[in-house]
Structure formats: C-alpha cells, structure tokens
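Backbone-to-sequence.
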C-alpha cells in the first residue's frame, strides 16, 4: 500500500497539500434502487478484447447514519450471474472512503479500494492480485445525470504506468 500512496503523491503532488471537505455524504446520491447494465472484459490482462454483458439491479441502503452504505449487486447475462455486495465505510480522520467488495461465488472480501470524491468524481485505488499476479486497481464513479452514474474499473500490471479498463457499469435510478 505504501508504494501506491507514494505513486499517488508523485503523480498528484497537490494531494498532500490540500484540506479536503468532509465527504461523509458523498454516496448519498446512490441510496435507492438502480437498473444496472454491466460490461465486463472476459479475460483482463490477457490481450483479449471480448466483453460480456449483464443486466440486473443494484440496491443501495444507508447504514450508520450515512457514514456507511451497503450495496447489493445482482446481474445476469450470457456468461452467467454476478452477485456481490459492497460495504462502503467513511473514515472521518482521512476524509476518505473504503470500498469493500465481496463476490458471493468465493465468499471473500477483496482488499478495500481507498479514495474520495473531488468535484463530483470518485476515484479509488487498491493493490490486489489477479491470476497470481500483483496488480493495481483503479475504480472511478462518474455522474452522467442526476439519475444515472457510470462505474469503471481498470487494472494495471506495470505499477500504474498503463491501465486496462475491464468493468463498466451504468446505473439508472428506478423511480
């Protein structure tokens, strides 16, 4: 994790010098039920360009007075079903969020992605392994409209020099 933080401060030197606003309500926009369309790169970091698509729902509920939320993702497509949950926790000291994801298929929590929102855009990073290989993960949340958001995940196997997009989900609010 230390290497990732060092890379972030080198790439974004102003990060260490700013005093970010309190972000404990950054995810309030997402509370509710969403129609989810998800595209996933079938074999990341392999040179493959085959994407698979899924449709389903995402339910987000506030817990701990909004300093945390619980996300349930359920999507299906030709490649099968993805069911997972994310517990997002706000740290008031760092003013950052940890995104803690678990896939129902393996019952394991992934390493948390840590980050924050700036100007309405959420950026989160973590270190992980993929097929036994050490990688960096970058997760981005982008507002499309008040009722639509885009979630992107990218992997880097070269220490953050290049990134491969491998997960794109577009959530549209169910009214």
């Amino acid at each position: 994790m230390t290497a990732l933080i060092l890379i972030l401060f080198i790439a974004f030197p102003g990060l260490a010098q700013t005093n970010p606003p309190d972000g404990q309500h950054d995810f309030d926009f997402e509370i509710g039920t969403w129609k989810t369309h998800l595209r996933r790169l079938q074999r990341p970091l392999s040179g493959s360009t085959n994407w698979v698509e899924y449709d389903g729902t995402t339910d987000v509920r506030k817990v701990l007075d909004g300093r945390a939320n619980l996300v349930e993702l359920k999507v299906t497509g030709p490649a099968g079903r993805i069911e997972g949950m994310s517990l997002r926790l706000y740290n008031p000291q760092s003013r950052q969020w940890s995104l803690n994801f678990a896939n129902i298929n393996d019952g394991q929590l992934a390493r948390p992605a840590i980050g924050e929102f700036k100007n309405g855009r959420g950026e989160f990073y973590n270190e992980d392994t993929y097929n036994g290989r050490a990688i960096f993960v970058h997760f981005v949340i982008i507002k499309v409209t008040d009722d639509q958001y885009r979630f992107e995940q990218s992997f880097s196997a070269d220490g953050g020099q290049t990134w491969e997009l491998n997960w794109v989900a577009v959530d549209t609010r169910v009214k």
